[in-house]
Amino acid sequence: MNLLVTLNEAYVPTLKVMLRSLFDNCKKQLTIYIMYTDIGENEIKDLAAFVKYFGHTLYPLPVNSDTFSNAPVNFYYSKEMYYRLFAYTVLPSTVDKVLYLDPDILVLNPIEKLYNIDLGDYLFAAAAHDKMMIGYINKIRLKTDGDRYYNSGVLLMNIKRLREDMDISEISGYVEEHASELILPDQDVLNGLYWDKIMPLDECLYNYDARRYSAYLISTKGKVNMEYIIYNTVIMHFCGKQKPWHNGYPYRFGILYKHYKKLAERDEKALLQ
């Protein structure tokens, strides 16, 4: 099973927490591809040892620092967010499918069913955080006919089809042309160019927004409650600027994140012994 993550050095501790939760919920052998620019050699070795401790393999994919150097970024979104969009150009030729996950995620239940989805001719599978007004605004803003605005934090990627159909110059051209309009840059590119080539996923299962417990509870008439989440939700995503590893995180699942953070820290200590 192939996993992809793109990140900078600041997110390495967060990645370890995500991986720790994944290792608890995946029985398959994992090859974890990481695309990065500014992570030091010692950090990579440390991360590789952490992954190996659980019986999996880390596959570093360093990216030239000039790549997307002129693309719009801000305090919250670094240029590494764009890397997932051209991952198909650097992944080994033997890779036909990969699951991309943001580091600010917890995997709560077995991941295999998601990975084994048949993508057919779709380039991606992703979930939209369906809020009617937001979807409408993004439809107008990005000038698409799509009714959904897909979140790019969880992407099942059809690498075989991406190699055949995707053009890196189209991506860089879109970024350059729309630079002043991009709010969530890589996500805007994904939706602006490929909205009709994305298989929709159930967000309550595969990209649960940890901020929206009450909204999900109301919109599903009580179905997606705490018990449902614990037994069914596969991926919980800590979206937004407020993160559960920061002090004062205001949402209810912060304590769950701290549980996995503690497990990751415990395992790191075991590695040093």
From TrEMBL:
Protein name, per record: Glycosyltransferase family 8 protein
InterPro entries xrefs: Glyco_trans_8, Glycosyltrans_8_dom-fam, Nucleotide-diphossugar_trans
Keyword NAD: no
Pfam assignment, any one: Glyco_transf_8
MF (Gene Ontology): glycosyltransferase activity; metal ion binding
Coiled coil region boundaries: none
Keywords of the record: Glycosyltransferase, Metal-binding, Transferase
Gene3D superfamilies linked: Spore Coat Polysaccharide Biosynthesis Protein SpsA, Chain A
Classification via CDD domains: GT8_A4GalT_like
